[in-house]
Every structure is written in structure tokens, then in C-alpha cells.
Amino acid sequence: MKQLFSLFLAFCSIALHAQQTIGELEFLDPKMEQIISKDAKIEVLAEGFRWSEGPLWVPKLNGLLFSDVPNNKVYLWKEDQGLTLFLDPSGMTQHAPHNSNAGANGMRLDFEGNLILCQHGDRAVARLSSWEFESPQYDVLVDHFNGKWLNSPNDLVFDKKGTLYFTDPPYGLKELDKDPLKELPFNGVFKWSPKDGIQLLSKSMNRPNGILLSKDERTVYVGNSDPNKNIIVAFDLVKGRFKNERVFFDGTALGKKRPGNFDGLRMHSSGIIFSTGPGGVLLIDSDGTHLGTILPGKLTANCEFDADEGYLYLTSADVLARIKLK
Q1: Among 83, 105, 174, 312, which residue carries the largest CB count within 10 Å?
Q2: For the residues 148-158, what does the mean pLDDT come to?
């Protein structure tokens, strides 16, 4: 039955890839044309998800992993195979007190190539330790701070030394900040390493979400997913601590015109930041200039480049999509 399901998913994915495009592009600055052609199309690769998230390009698989958070699953999309189910469950395995079936959200590879997942339901950051089709196993890296359960780790990034930085909003809890299971009185940004354990870096944002480390590892960017404070915050990273907190980009006014809050963040090799937010994926230059927006016509949670930046993949509400880059 699982094989038939995977074949069905692959057939649907290939058919959609050949037929369907969505949305449009908004060019606000000529620099955007260095990255995306004006005639580029947003292709739908697969659909039917409750909330697609956490896209991660995995070179050894030559494909994209992404999660369907409410359905507690991770899928793999490959050009030659289409869509297959990869992890079930992905992030809710009865590890922690929980009141939702929310699975994995953000995913990254560590420097040994292990898959590291932010698990909403398990309220943990965990490593995939063994993969069997219907019973993946996870090793929990961190799930508590000062003896209290984390809220629901959301997104993560590693520095070159292997230190993990992650955000911890309350999205995996049904009643968010008012949920009786919530033990921490704030929503924080943390770092963790096997040697030093967990350390709190910031609790200034009410909805810390996507997190990005600059190429020189001197700046950390965090998207705050609050319609009343819809911003990307920047911090200087000095000796492992956050300094000089500032607003890198304020999209609050834009968010009143277009749906969507700041979420996933990726940095192009050009230094341009691709951030999901109001309307879709915003291209923002290193000085904070808004160059334009990829507008899929759907709320967009996150995005990811393939290995050579030939495509940008988008997890947009119920679909997986992509757009060709120059």
C-alpha cells in the first residue's frame, strides 16, 4: 500500500510539474533582474498539503525534503521521481506533553550529514538516528531550558563550529502563549552545543521564526511573525552572544496590504536575502532595500535553493513550487 501511495504521489507531482503555474513577479529594482528573469514562472510541483514548511536541499539525495507540519510528515521531491513520503512521523512521537499532532518544521544537515529537525509536537530539536519507512527513530538534542519544556522549536541554523542556533515560538501549542502546557514565559532564540548545552540569546521578540546566519557569521537575522510588528531583526554575533539588536527590514505596513508574516530566510550567494513574508518571497539587498517579490498568490512559509542556485523552491500553504533563477 505504501508503494502504491508513493507511486500515486509521484504521478501527481510529475503531472502538476508539466501543467500548472501560479502567481506573478514584482520587480521594484533592476538588481532583481540579475537573479530572476522577468518571464520566469512559478511552477507547482506537488499539492494537497495542509501546511508545507521546512524545505531543505539534500545533495546526497539530489532532492528536496519538506514537511507537512499538521500531518506530521516529511516528503522528498526529486526531479526524476516526483514526490515520495520520507518520514512518518516527523515530529510528534509522544515524547513531550502536547496537544496537537504537529510534526517537524525547520530542518538542516549537521556537518556529519545528519538530518536535524525542529519538532513541534515533541517540543525538541532532534537528530534522525535511523530511518525505517514507517518507524523513524530520533535522538533528542535539546528539549528543556532551565528545567522547563521548550515551546515548539521552529527553525535552526549551524555555524562553522557546529553550534546550533534555533527559534522557539509557541506555534506547536494550540493556544499559543495562553496554552496551559507552555512553561517558558517568553519566546526565545537559543544556541546549543554538546559541550556548552543550551543558552538563551534573545527573548525580545514575541514571535521569533525563521533564522539566518550571514556568510561571515557576524550577523544573525530573525523573522518576527507578528502582523503588528512584522519585521526582520538583525543582531551582531560577538563571541557567541547577540549584540546591537536592530530592525533590518520593517514589513508591517506592507503586511497590511498583503497577507503573510516574516518566516523563512535564505541568503543567495550574491548577498541578497530571500525572505518569506507579506505576499510571498521578498528579495532584500544587504542594505535593506526591497528589490521585489515572488508572489505565488498563496501564503508562503519558507524557501530553499538547490545545490547550484538554479532554482528556488517554495513551500506555499498547500503546495510545493519552484522558480528558475539565473
Answers
A1: 105
A2: 98
Identify whether 324 is part of a domain. Answer: no
Rounded to two decimals, what is the model's pTM?
0.93
Q: 285, exposed or middle or buried, with CB in 10 Å at 0-12, 13-18, 19+?
A: middle
What is the DSSP annotation of 77-108?
EETTTEEEEEESSSS-SS-S--SS---EEEEE
Which pLDDT band holds residue 135 (cuts at 50, 70, 90)?
A: confident
In a domain, 325, yes or no: no
| Domain membership flag for residue 134 | yes
For residues 103 and 122, give the distance between their C-alpha atoms in angstroms, rounded to a whole number: 8
Sign (positive/negative) of CA torsion 171, 172, 174, 180? negative
Angle at 264 between CA 205 and CA 21, to 5 degrees: 145
> Does residue 81 lie in a domain region?
yes
Q: For 13-59, how does the pLDDT look when each residue is reduced to its tens digit (9 = 90+)? A: 444 445 699 999 999 999 999 999 999 999 999 999 999 999 999 99
Q: Locate all alpha helices (DSSP H) within the chain, ordered by sequence.
A: 2-19, 252-255
CATH of residue 36: 2.120.10.30
Euclidean distance between CA atoms 315 and 313, whole angstroms: 7
Mean pLDDT, residues 298-313? 98
Mean pLDDT of the chain: 94
The sign of the CA dihedral 217, 222, 140, 130 is negative
What's the Rg (C-alpha) of the chain?
Answer: 19
d(CA 76, CA 74): 7
Q: Retrieve residue 7's grid coordinates.
A: 507511486
Domain that holds residue 30: 2-319
Q: Is the peptide bond before 89 cis (omega within 30 degrees of 0)?
A: yes
